[in-house]
Specification:
Layout lengths: L14 H7 E4 L4 E4 L12 E2 L1 E2 L5 E5 L2 E4 H10 L6 E4 L12 E4 L1 H6 L14 E4 L4 E8 L2 E8 L2 H16 L5
Antiparallel strand pairs: 1-2, 2-3, 4-5, 5-6, 7-8, 9-10, 10-11
C-alpha cells in the first residue's frame, strides 16, 4: 500500500459461500438471506445492520463483515485491492453505484467536514502567526500550502479550487 499505510480487512469468506448465504441487490444496496443458518435467521429476511461507526455490516458464518466489501466481492467477483470509498459519504449506503475503489489517501480526500473544524470550510484554518486564513491540503502524504487570505470566503473558494486540482474525482 502507498505511504506505509496498512489496513486489515477480513477477506476470509469465499464468493461461493457468500452467494449460498445471501443475495445482494446492487440497485438498493440491500442484502437478503438465502439460507437458514439458525433458528433466528430465515430465508427471505433482510441481512445486516449498522455498526457503531455507521457502516452497514453483515454476519456470515458467525463473523461480521463490512457490507460494502461483500457487495464489491459479489458484484466484481474479487475483493477490492485497497479501500472502498462511499462516493456520497454515507457509510451505510451500499448501492454499487455509490462504491468505488480508492487508495487510503483518496478515501481520506472524500471525507466530510470534521466536527472540530472552526472555519466552517474544509482545508481552511486560522493562522495565528500570520493573522490570516490559511488554505492547505495534503496530496499523497505531502502538505501543500495554497496561501494565506484576509477574507474567509476567498480562502474557501481557493480551497475548493485546490481540492479539485489536487484531488480530482475524490474532491468533496
Amino acid at each position: 500500500m502507498t505511504g506505509g499505510y496498512k489496513r486489515y480487512y477480513r477477506n476470509d469468506i469465499t464468493l461461493d459461500r457468500v452467494r449460498k448465504l445471501i443475495d445482494y441487490d446492487p440497485e438498493t444496496g440491500e442484502f437478503t438471506r438465502k439460507a437458514t443458518t439458525s433458528k433466528k435467521i430465515r430465508p427471505g429476511g433482510k441481512a445486516g445492520g449498522i455498526n457503531v461507526n455507521g457502516y452497514k455490516v453483515v454476519s456470515l458464518d458467525g463473523r461480521v463483515h463490512l457490507a460494502h466489501r461483500i457487495a464489491w466481492l459479489v458484484s466484481h467477483e474479487r475483493w477490492p485491492e485497497h479501500d472502498l470509498d462511499h462516493i456520497n459519504g454515507d457509510r451505510s449506503d451500499c448501492r454499487l453505484r455509490n462504491l468505488r475503489e480508492a487508495t487510503p489517501y483518496e478515501n481520506l480526500w472524500n471525507r466530510t467536514l470534521q466536527r472540530n473544524n472552526k472555519s466552517g470550510h474544509k482545508n481552511v484554518s486560522w493562522s495565528k502567526p500570520v493573522q490570516k486564513w490559511e488554505v492547505r491540503l495534503r496530496r499523497n502524504g505531502r502538505q501543500i500550502i495554497i496561501g494565506y487570505f484576509d477574507d474567509l470566503e476567498e480562502a474557501a473558494r481557493m480551497a475548493t479550487e485546490a481540492r479539485l486540482k489536487y484531488h480530482g474525482d475524490f474532491a468533496r
